[in-house]
Backbone:
């Protein structure tokens, strides 16, 4: 087996490991823009890598197969590196892997350890970087997803922060539709009845004028059944005579 | 209901720049707003001379009420209450309604200018005149009871009203007075 094949296999193996370790990485803030600008993008050997893979590639030191394509990066970028970058990293590291120093990522470039020719840079993890899940965490997440799909869920298993998505998933599993807001039965209203006092069994004829517009008052009065006329009631009242 | 509608929204115009209050009613063109306590004091100062004043004012109120009824034949208690309440309300005299206790008919005057005893004579004279003019039935009135928001006046013949005044002056409650008037039954 030739050395090219071995180097290529090592590069592929390092890429697979990096892909498992860092599924999504946000590009680190440009600590040393001059260095990044001067270095060409170290493309991977794969013809069409996914996007997340390309991000990882941008931070990973070059493997043996890619080294011939961009070897000057290491040498040319070192003298132009700004002072803060040089202070933070040892001299040897800056000379060996200045691209890593320009874009500091904590433990993401693990594949660097695999490659014997590149020393592992000692760079502190930036605060803005995402926590790196270990292979154990990823496997647990895969197990949960697999379990949820095995249980019959064909929608999102709700592993994220979206609680509504999670609730919908649970409802789907029990085979019951979620209640719409308008379908929620309202609590029964209290029924109150107003009883007249026993000693005042009477009729009341009020216009209640100022409490509502006049038109409403007229409509209300028209809707009621017409009682006896006021004249007849008044005549009966006038006919009352005190007894004794 | 055939009563005539009155647009109260434009019935009263308060012109603060000129200090004028105008009523858009046929009977009154301009009004003078005075505190209710002033009116109560003026009525109390009139003494026995309050009857002509009350009857004069009642004619104006009854005229507006009859116009609001608009020729309704034999109006119902609600219709009459509406017309009188509207006429009173346009003058800031409150509102009114009717109650019936057996054969006894009472008028509830809500939010009158005053409720104290010095106002009772004016109130009975005004109400009796208005109801008589609107219904065409000669009637008298007597204050049956006083409550926080108004007065309850009995409408009937003069002997019955005299009994009511006498019992009310003794402090009897309204239902007791009516029970006595109705022969012991509480209706």
Residues:
């Amino acid at each position: 087996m030739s050395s090219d094949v071995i180097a290529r296999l090592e590069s592929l193996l390092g890429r697979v490991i990096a892909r498992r370790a860092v599924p999504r990485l946000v590009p680190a803030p440009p600590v040393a823009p001059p260095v990044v600008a001067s270095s060409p993008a170290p493309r991977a050997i794969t013809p069409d890598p996914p996007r997340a893979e390309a991000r990882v590639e941008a931070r990973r030191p070059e493997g043996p197969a890619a080294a011939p394509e961009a070897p000057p990066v290491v040498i040319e970028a070192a003298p132009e590196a700004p002072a803060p970058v040089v202070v933070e990293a040892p001299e040897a590291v800056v000379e060996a892997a200045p691209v890593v120093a320009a874009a500091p990522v904590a433990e993401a470039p693990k594949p660097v350890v695999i490659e014997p020719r590149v020393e592992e840079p000692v760079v502190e993890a930036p605060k803005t970087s995402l926590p790196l899940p270990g292979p154990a965490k990823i496997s647990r997440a895969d197990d949960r997803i697999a379990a949820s799909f095995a249980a019959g869920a064909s929608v999102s298993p709700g592993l994220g922060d979206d609680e509504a998505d999670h609730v919908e998933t649970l409802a789907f599993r029990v085979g019951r539709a979620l209640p719409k807001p308008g379908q929620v039965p309202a609590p029964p209203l209290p029924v109150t009845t107003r009883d007249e006092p026993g000693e005042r069994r009477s009729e009341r004829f009020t216009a209640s004028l100022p409490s509502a517009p006049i038109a409403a008052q007229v409509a209300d009065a028209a809707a009621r059944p017409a009682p006896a006329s006021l004249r007849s009631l008044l005549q009966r009242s006038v006919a009352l005579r005190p007894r004794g | 209901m055939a009563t005539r509608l009155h647009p109260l929204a434009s019935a009263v115009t308060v012109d603060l720049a000129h200090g004028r209050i105008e009523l858009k009613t046929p009977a009154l063109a301009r009004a003078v707003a005075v505190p209710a306590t002033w009116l109560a004091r003026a009525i109390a100062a009139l003494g026995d001379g309050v009857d002509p004043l009350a009857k004069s004012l009642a004619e104006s109120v009854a005229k507006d009420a009859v116009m609001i009824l608009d020729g309704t034949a034999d109006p119902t208690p609600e219709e009459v209450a509406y017309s009188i309440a509207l006429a009173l309300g346009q003058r800031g005299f409150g509102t009114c309604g009717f109650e019936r206790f057996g054969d006894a008919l009472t008028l509830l005057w809500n939010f009158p200018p005053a409720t104290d005893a010095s106002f009772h004579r004016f109130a009975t004279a005004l109400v009796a005149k208005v109801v008589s003019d609107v219904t065409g039935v000669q009637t008298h009135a007597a204050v049956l009871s006083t409550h926080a928001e108004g007065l309850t006046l009995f409408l009937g013949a003069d002997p019955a009203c005299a009994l009511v005044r006498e019992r009310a002056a003794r402090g009897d409650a309204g239902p007791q007075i009516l029970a006595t008037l109705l022969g012991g039954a509480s209706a």
In short: Chain A touches chain B at residues 199-210, 214-215, 217-218, 221-222, 224, 226-243 (CB under 8 Å). The longest strand of chain A covers residues 203-206. The beta strands of chain A are 203-206.
